[in-house]
TrEMBL record:
Residues 123-211 form the FecR protein domain. The lineage of its organism: Bacteria, Pseudomonadati, Bacteroidota, Sphingobacteriia, Sphingobacteriales. This is Iron dicitrate transport regulator FecR. GO terms for molecular function: sigma factor antagonist activity. Residues 262-330 form the Protein FecR C-terminal domain. It comes from Pedobacter ginsengisoli. Pfam families: FecR, FecR_C. InterPro entries: FecR, FecR_C, Ferrdict_sens_TM.
Length: 332
């Protein structure tokens, strides 16, 4: 008798001929030693199994039924010697152990199927990510998303940085983006999220309807509504002050952003330069506070070089700049 045949018996894969061999073997006192050996191997293969108690009870019931059905093949003994106790214990325990092993393995395979994928763009780089449901994500520079390879009943993911989403509509499966303590929930729409560390979170809607909530408990189970947005609406949530502010935007600007066009409308030069630093992976220093507060209204394309963009800004804000190694210095 070999271990492989015993494992086949325990998993109900024996042929009729093999089954008869096992039944004959079970009548032998020395069968307990081999069962113990198989038991030890099965135990060593188990790595912190996560048990499904309902499935375990069902499996135990099946094993007991199997033993009852095969009762005529097992000798009836009124007085049990220790070796027989071991044998019958093994007959009961081993199927349960192998059942635990396969249940654990099945659960681990399930976890593996929903393993998270991470996409990251360093400064100066942008990308387009297509999810398994057909959703498109235009991921910005210095930004990261984490998402499952295959979605389940709820499509959930995480974002750090900024991205434009064109979510594939699926009324039966909401799409949720987690950004620190804020979550944005949609069914199918297009919108942009900015969620950089240390800065307020901004959600802007191009098409459809978007719900923005914040988590009020550490376990993320209790939510409080921040805003429900429609096209052209923007909500900014400041986690430092726990306050939300609403504003509007031309939806066309959001579409332009995903195509690599930056539209600055009445924005401080300091804020514009912070965006350019991220998009071009360059350091920009301003020597004048008055220049930092100058308001900019312009459009530029990321397909253009940083020097060409700086030429446009220098004319608009009336400043001079010079390139010094890997940084740009701006002065009056």
């Amino acid at each position: 008798m070999n271990k492989l045949l015993l494992k086949k018996y325990l998993n109900n894969t024996c042929t009729d001929e093999e089954l008869e061999q096992v039944r004959q073997f079970l009548r032998q006192p020395e069968s307990a030693d081999l069962f113990r050996s198989v038991l030890n191997e099965a135990w060593n293969e188990m790595e912190e199994p996560e048990l499904d108690l309902h499935a375990m009870a069902s499996y135990r019931q099946q094993i007991m039924q199997k033993l009852q059905n095969n009762n005529e093949s097992v000798p009836k003994i009124t007085k049990f010697r220790p070796t027989h106790l071991l044998k019958y214990a093994a007959i009961l325990i081993l199927p349960l152990v192998f059942g635990l092993y396969h249940l654990s393995k099945s659960k681990k395979e399930t976890v593996a199927k929903v393993a998270l994928i991470e996409s990251y763009n360093p400064k100066g780089q942008r990308s387009i990510v297509t999810l398994s449901d057909g959703t498109l994500i235009y991921l910005g520079s210095n930004s990261k998303i984490r998402y499952p390879k295959i979605f389940s009943n709820v499509r959930e993911m995480e974002l750090i940085g900024e991205a434009f989403f064109r979510v594939k509509r699926d009324p039966s499966r909401p799409f949720i983006i987690h950004t620190n303590t804020v979550q944005t929930k949609v069914l199918g729409t297009s919108f942009k999220i900015e969620a950089f560390k240390g800065s307020p979170i901004a959600v802007s809607v191009a098409t459809g309807k978007v719900r923005v909530d914040r988590e009020t408990t550490p376990n993320k189970k209790q939510l409080t509504s921040v805003a429900v947005l429609t096209p052209g609406n923007v909500v900014n949530w400041d986690e430092k002050t726990n306050k939300a502010s609403l504003s509007t935007i031309d939806p066309h600007e959001l579409e332009q952003w995903k195509d690599g066009n930056l539209i600055f409308s009445n924005q401080r030069l300091a804020d514009v330069l912070a965006v350019l630093e991220r998009c071009y992976n360059v350091k920009i220093n301003v020597t004048s506070n008055s220049l930092s507060n100058f308001r900019i209204n312009t459009t530029c394309s990321l397909n253009e070089s940083i020097t060409k963009v700086m030429d446009v800004l220098s004319k608009a804000a009336d400043f001079k700049y010079k390139l010094d190694d890997d940084q740009i210095i701006i002065s009056n």
